[in-house]
Write a structure and sequence with these properties.
The protein is mainly β. The protein folds into two domains: 57 residues, no CATH class; 87 residues, Immunoglobulin-like (Sandwich), CATH 2.60.40.3080. The N and C termini lie far apart (70 Å).
Length: 154
Amino acid sequence: MKKNTFVLISLLTAHVAFSQEVVSTQGDTYSNGTGHIDFTIGEVVIDTGTDGTNFITQGFHQSSWNYVGLEDHLPTYEAKVYPNPTSDYLTISATNFTGVSCSLFDAQGKLVTQVELNSEITTIEVKDLSPGAYSLILNNDSQLLKTFKLVKNQ
């Protein structure tokens, strides 16, 4: 009886010790008609394979960087939003402003304000907004350009 209990506990311990587990803060899933892939952020690079057109890397997949509160949907589009954090006004600086609109959303995703950029420097008054986190999205008629994460102070 003791021998069977010992063997059972040993097997369960070995199973737990050698089973795979991932604790991740971020990742994503992609699928289409021919394949499916799940990944997490922060895995070490193991191997990269290619068929000449497509690349797949085991481990360390970065679908997009969210670096310093910026999602760069179109890397060739240049824009700056400052100051961050802000209290009274936001300034948007973009050399290519024609046809570009700016949407400001609160932390719950509610649209707070929307304006068209009308020059290289556009200012938005935010002094009446509640303190908290906001997202400012720049887009044109056909695509997202940039998303900025902003903080509104008192």
